[in-house]
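Hi Q.,

Before the meeting this afternoon, I wanted you to have the NAP prediction in hand. No need to reply - just skim if you have a minute. The sequence and ligand are here:
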Amino acid sequence: MTERYALVGEDVSRSLSPVMMNSAFKERGVDAVYETVSVPPDTFPYRIKDLLASTSGMNITIPFKSQVIEYLDELDSVSSRIGAVNVVKRTGTKASGYNTDVNGIVASLREHGRERVRSALLVGAGGAARAFCEAMDELGCPEVLVVVRDPSRGESFISEMSGVFKGIRFGFSTLDRLRDVDVDLVFNATPIGSGGRELPEPLKRVIYGRSTVFDAVYRPTKTELLKTAELRGCTTISGYEMLLNQGVLAFEIWTGKSAPKEVMRQSLVRSLQSEADGS
Ligand code: NAP
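Predicted structure with the ligand bound:
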């Protein structure tokens, strides 16, 4: 029987995950279909129970990465540490949670030659930001400055992350008060720049001369942040690389087979290109 996989989030109708995952299932001869399921937040508690019963696995996205945890039977060590799940696998009646966003970040940085990070500027304090903190722990980064728009959110985020990652010194700044900082990695974990929206001035200033700028946003592939960084000679990493690398690990968790990474990459690049061409 054809297995069913789904991406579950509040509004996932435009996601590229189905294109990427269905190309991988086809390439590896897995009889499965991957689809999007948009769920209004107030219906999540009962929809998730149906989805857990009717799918073999799910990707979970905004705003349910933490909320889903209470419906799962077990968590891997990473998702348990950061309190965010983006992959669910069902085995019989048991549902297990994982976080592959961390691999999306670490693998993309390694592909660009970054094995270690000296200090980082993290924009945002949501699910992707939590995955970034775990990634920085893996890459031995001792210092992370978190940029938020709401100071109380910044305080609670760094207090929680400091408790989990004892080897990282966290600080925070609001976006409007951000001044020159000396970091060798900038990571955008907010929707700033998605759909071609303009980059806030304070962020333009701090990317001057930085060595690596990584944007979790993948639409457009080259955001205003990445364009600016490129002009200033930085190494740039697009969110589509993160999407690909988190998807590779999700595929392997679900199927136990090695993921056809190049096929997945090509399907993503083709879709993004045809969107950019307006076709
Ligand atoms: P999330 O949990 O909802 O967190 C979003 C964060 O962005 C929050 O800290 C929020 O601040 C902040 N934010 C939202 N709008 C903002 C604005 N206009 N200015 C400044 N800050 C703003 O979302 P997430 O899961 O972390 O995702 C964040 C971004 O990463 C999204 O664009 C998502 O598509 C992308 N992402 C990409 C991948 C990938 O594979 N490429 C994977 C995961 C996420 P408040 O707390 O003040 O609301």
